[in-house]
Write a structure and sequence with these properties.
By secondary structure, the protein is α+β, with helices and mostly antiparallel strands. The protein contains seven helices and eight strands. It is elongated. 11% of the residues are buried.
Length: 239
């Protein structure tokens, strides 16, 4: 509303991207008009339902003055659902890491400082680090510095071990890249974001499927029920 009345009153502010957030945040500035509209719509729905019950809109004998009330409460219900979904979208979930992590399997070769060589497969990987499941348990880890080579991409990166553990009977290492050249970073980005099949074309749902998706979003928001809360290697390194 403020932009429509006075479009040049202030500069346009872009929503911050790529920031770390450890708590849920709610955009109250954008939500206040929607909350007011939600309350007014709820009052309208309550009045429409009351008039329908009192004046007997659903009875066979319908007065011409109240024919539109039955349609009004349906639209009010639909508007309440859509406004409720819009308010849920304004709730931002915690994001402990600025990087996107992919469930990508790549064979890697790890060379330790004592020339011990280990082989493994990545379980998750990003622009800043990776989690690797080793094919055999290492004898020892002399220090945290390793030389990592992604065999399929012929990409060699210096890395630092920040955590070790066991997952599904496999010894795992979580590493953080220590230094990436511009060429290494470009090849890493190409592997993560530009591989075949990474981006799939989404088909537009039909009317019934869209209605089911609306109720699914309202009753089971992804922000609460479909989130990977596992702490990533880089987030662990910052603790």
């Amino acid at each position: 509303m403020q932009v429509m009345l006075n479009p040049f009153s202030s500069c346009f502010k872009v929503t911050p991207k790529g920031t770390v957030n450890n708590n849920y945040t709610f955009n109250w500035k954008l939500a206040l008009p929607l909350i007011c509209l939600f309350i007014l719509t709820a009052i309208s729905l309550w009045r429409n339902l009351g008039m329908c019950m009192i004046q007997g809109v659903w009875a066979p004998e319908v007065d011409n003055t109240v024919k539109g009330i039955g349609l009004g409460w349906l639209w009010s219900t639909y508007n309440l659902i859509m406004i409720g979904i819009a308010l849920l979208i304004l709730l931002d979930a915690p994001k402990p890491d600025i990087y996107e992590w992919f469930d990508l399997r790549r064979v890697v070769k790890l060379t330790l400082s004592d020339n011990q060589i280990l082989w493994g497969v990545t379980t998750i990987i990003s622009e800043a680090g990776a989690e690797i499941a080793l094919t055999k348990t290492p004898l020892d880890l002399p220090n945290s510095t390793v030389h990592l080579e992604i065999a399929e991409e012929n990409l060699q990166i210096g890395a630092e071990i920040i955590q070790t553990g066991i997952n599904n009977e496999y010894h795992t290492l979580k590493v953080k890249y220590t230094s990436l050249s511009l060429t290494q970073h470009r090849r890493l980005v190409k592997m993560l974001f530009c591989r075949p099949g990474q981006w799939k074309r989404n088909k537009t749902p039909g009317e019934l499927q869209s209605l089911l998706l609306i109720f699914r979003i309202l009753l089971k928001p992804r922000i609460f029920f479909n989130r990977n809360l596992e702490v990533t290697p880089i987030a662990l390194a910052k603790l």
